[in-house]
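User: Please predict the structure of the protein below. I'd like the answer in structure-token form so I can feed it into my own downstream comparison script.

Assistant: Understood. Taking the following sequence of 197 residues as input:
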Amino acid sequence: MEITTRERILEAALRLFHEHGFRGATTAEIARSAGIAEGTIYRYFKDKKELFLACVDPVIEEAVRRELAIVGPGSPREITHRRIIERYRVIRENQAVFHILFTEARYHPEIARMLLNQIAAKVSSDEAEIFREAIARGAFRDLPNPLILSVGMTAAIWAMVAAQELSADWPSATPRADLENEVADFFCNALFRDESV
């Protein structure tokens, strides 16, 4: 299957945004890396910010889709545990995108706003149902704000994944599957009062 010009632009942009940041990656450099003229970028994207968002938006969409697909029986804690493992996997699979998000969003409030709005629209309504059920059962230690919890947990997982990749001995002998469970247990233990809720 042949890669389209748009896909080449997105691949080059993602790589350069990851390496140089939003400001450091120029459209001229992106075009050169994609093997096209700089003006071609503007046939597909109105500006560099739209190109940036086109690089990260599909990953956010996929992450939300995958996490919302986690259904099945279980307590709020068990459902949350499964969703955290899925979030961990998505972040691990898309480290470059999450690196860009967490390093660039602080310099570009409109990017942070767009991401928060997208997360709030797609995740927090689903999480709200889990939270309502858990609150009714007295499961939570303290009542968390679903949006803040979702973004904060994502940032923490991203940092854990990045730390694992940077250090071959962290954690020294923990297989990846066990680490996913340890991360999920860590958050569930912080959120829920005990195993039965």
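That's the full token string. The radius of gyration is 19 Å.
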